[in-house]
Design goal:
By secondary structure, this protein is mainly α. It has helices at 2-10, 36-43, 50-59, 64-75, 78-81, 84-96, 101-113, 117-130, 135-147, 151-164, 169-182, 186-199, 203-215, 219-231, 239-251, 255-258. The chain is 70% helix and 0% strand.
């Protein structure tokens, strides 16, 4: 078991010499008739393997570590069953590992994925009680608070994340801008969305930028940003950008263009 753990950590001798078809990583070679502990450790090597983890739980239903990793796999398919399987597996693991930070975060991520942001915020708060600078928990909490329109709390959460200067700084500026827009704090929202644009000009950022700029009647810049959002992949499905662009063009007394 220890040798396998080390090999998985360093991608060394027991791993398959080449990636298997359809696999994202090279999978360890599993010896036939291996005991559950070895199947488990092989099943979480590099990335969790749903079939191996299911085999472990079939042999040892109380193997709670396997339940957690099986729950992680199930969480990524939560839209197919509403998160039922992942919730059950996480509940099993939580009874034995109530303060596992990964379990707390993934429970929040699962709740957010199935649209239960109130529950998700609770899980993210518990995660942050264990690790106050958990960047992903801060980001996901910010998103859920904004979706719940708890904008003052969302702004505070986003500000914490911005101070940390992580890879999530751009979305933190974006979500803070969204909440400030809803609160009609247009100057602050504009400052935030400009900061987000300076990091990455993705569709969400350009769209909200156009909405804010339209509210400020900065119509030339608004049109540029909204057209840029519409020019990105799947931009023809961006209804918010299309609607706001029509408003911007209409304000410019170009009704024929607005109707297109």
């Amino acid at each position: 078991y220890l040798a396998l753990a080390l090999d998985c950590s360093y991608d060394a001798r027991v791993l398959a010499p080449t990636k298997q078809p359809g696999a994202a990583h090279r999978r360890p070679v599993l010896v036939p008739d291996s005991p559950p502990a070895i199947i488990y450790r092989t099943g979480i090597c590099m990335s969790p393997d749903a079939n191996m983890l299911a085999a472990v739980l079939a042999l040892v239903p109380e193997f709670h570590e396997a339940a957690y990793f099986a729950g992680v796999v199930a969480a990524f398919a939560a839209e197919e069953d509403g998160g039922v399987e992942a919730s059950e597996l996480f509940a099993q693991a939580r009874r034995h590992f109530p303060r596992a930070i990964g379990l707390s975060f993934m429970s929040g991520w699962l709740a957010k994925t199935v649209g239960e942001c109130t529950d998700a915020v609770g899980h993210f708060v518990r995660t942050l009680e264990m690790d106050a600078v958990h960047g992903y928990a801060l980001l996901e909490r910010t998103i859920c608070l904004s979706r719940l329109q708890q904008d003052t709390a969302a702004i505070a959460s986003a500000t914490q994340l911005i101070v940390l200067a992580t890879a999530s700084t751009q979305p933190a500026y974006y979500w803070r801008a969204v909440s400030r827009l809803r609160l009609r704090e247009l100057a602050d929202a504009r400052s935030d969305i400009e900061a987000a644009k300076a990091i990455e000009r993705d569709a969400n950022v350009l769209t909200i930028a156009g909405v804010i700029e339209n509210e400020q009647n900065d119509l030339t810049i608004a049109e540029q940003d909204l057209r840029a959002a519409r020019a990105l992949p799947r931009g023809d499905e961006n209804c918010t950008a299309a609607w706001t662009l029509a408003l911007v063009i209409g304000k410019g007394n170009r009704p024929a263009d607005a109707a297109q």
